[in-house]
Amino acid sequence: MVVGVFQLVSAFIAGPLEKKMDLRWMLCLGLGLFALGSWMNGNLTGESGYWEFFWPQAIRGSALMLCFLPINTLSLGRLPMEEVKNASGLYNLMRNLGGAIGLAVANTQMIYLTKVHYATLRESVTATSYQAQQMLEGLTASMAQMNLPDPDLAALKQLTGLALREAEIMTFNNLFQVIAVIFAASLVVAPFLKKVDGEKAAVIHE
């Protein structure tokens, strides 16, 4: 909801801004803000609350329209008008295909990185680890107070769940950081795009 609200509000800013600003720099602004919002989400912990999620999502939501409007015009704006219709179809096809591939890669990396981080954490949670044994004893005592039939097993499952949770958080942090780097790297390419005048942009949007 946060992303949607800020995207809606930014649409009223991005529209007029498109007519007054070089689209290449507008695109750079959008890419930069999205990279910033993603990077801010790359330092989450198990204690992160509402506001740790609110501002990064607000920044990314504001950045979306600053990316969508100029990138469409820059992609199609230098083509002859009779070719724009067919080019628009190909552009939307490639954008949807790219999005699908991106999601597939992200999901694959999510599964892989979670296993890697969990394996790393599991190496530290051993019978010789004082911190691990201390925490396990505390969990066992808590489970015993609940009158569970096997408090030792329940505590071990609780500890396993905590390790898995931390592994998933580390995975999301890594993915947000990778997304931030990709968007930041896109800033290098944006200034080299060819300029499109405002009149052609208006025709394309119509």
Number of helices: 7
The helix-and-strand class reads: mainly alpha
Query: How much is the average pLDDT?
Result: 88
- Give me the strand/helix succession: HHHHHHH
Q: Percent helix among the residues?
A: over 70%
Note the beta-strand portion.
under 5%
Provide an overview of this structure.
- The longest helix is centred in the middle third of the chain and has 44 residues, at 81-124.
- The protein is built from 7 helices and no strands.
- Helices cover 83% and strands 0% of the residues.
- Helix 1 packs parallel to helix 3 (50-76), helix 2 runs antiparallel to helix 6 (151-189) and helix 4 packs antiparallel against helix 6 (151-189).
In short:
By secondary structure, the protein is mostly helical. It has helices spanning 2-20, 23-40, 50-76, 81-124, 130-145, 151-189, 198-205.
List keywords for this structure.
206 residues, mainly alpha
